[in-house]
Predict the structure.
Amino acid sequence: MENKQYTVKTQSGEVICPRVAVADSMFSRMKGLMFSERLPDCDGLLITPCNSIHTFFMLYSLDVLFLDRDFKIVKAVYDLRPWRMSWIYFRAHQVLEMKAGTLKKDLKTGEKLEALCIS
């Protein structure tokens, strides 16, 4: 997992996720948030590349954004409980996972987000 953290915003500047960690190595992508009791020193985890997730061995529910390469929303999934699987979203290239209840409900498919490096 790279050490950089990002903030994810809408194009109008509204913060979707203030501190996002990135999982981009084979091991960090495979492990994801399994077995964790909470998000590790961040508000969200961006898994890239990724177009489908599972919540096996998770201890809490997630809100999930499937994003394409340009950070456009392919699909938003709210309150994905432990021991579930998502569909495969072939247009998605990355997935942003956050604790359930934190993702705003009025995000639209096709809306473009921005990721700004904060550290």
In short: The beta strands are 2-10, 15-23, 44-47, 62-67, 73-80, 94-99, 113-117. The radius of gyration is 13 Å.
